[in-house]
Predict the structure of DUF3307 domain-containing protein.
Amino acid sequence: MILFLKLLVAHLLGDFVFQPKNWVKDKEKKKIKSIKLYAHIVVHAILLLLLLQFNSTYWSAFLLVIISHYLIDLGKLYFQKKKNKRLFFFLDQALHIFFLVLATYIYSPFKISTDAILTQQNLLLFACLIFVTYTSSIIINTLISKWNPEKGNKSTEQSLANAGKYIGFLERILIFVFIAINQWAGVGFLLAAKSIFRFGDLTASKDRKLTEYVLIGTLLSFGLAILTGLVYSHYGR
């Protein structure tokens, strides 16, 4: 585990702390000819050597991480397009982490047991997370579908695409977590924060129907998240 953590810290420092934005832009523009690409790899190599304390025992892990990092970054530069940039960011990081795990496995073989993963508690947690995100979203939309005062409202047409959906996801996940760890004060803080942010919009709109619509949606969202949190707190321990 200590080896993996050293490799992970080196990766996080190299990819996110010691990689300026102008390096990223230069790599995207010049690709394999970019000097910044090789400077980026050198930074990773130095960080790995420092964290591994120049221990020659780990030369295989060092080479695997450095070579794979170069090839993954190079592949990303050539296959990444503007429309799939976000996808390739996460794919790039997932591949890097995979090779960190593989490098660790060389020195400390481990076995991944599905029995340890698919426990009753983990399955309940997974089910609850699905419910407070996608399932709850569909339930709320179904219950309030007969009212839609925001339709045709110019202010809502200028909002980010699917912003409300993801805000709801994050809101209910946070409530679920607060209740699961028995921190009810966090739920109150979240409700107060949302009320403050929404108050300005509702006051500006001077629309009673919109106010009622938002209030119903908020109470349903909080209610479903709280109920799910209570179920997990009772049966997941």
In short: The mean pLDDT is 88. The chain has two domains: 2-107, 115-235. Residues 142 and 189 are 27 Å apart (CA to CA). The two ends are 26 Å apart (CA to CA).
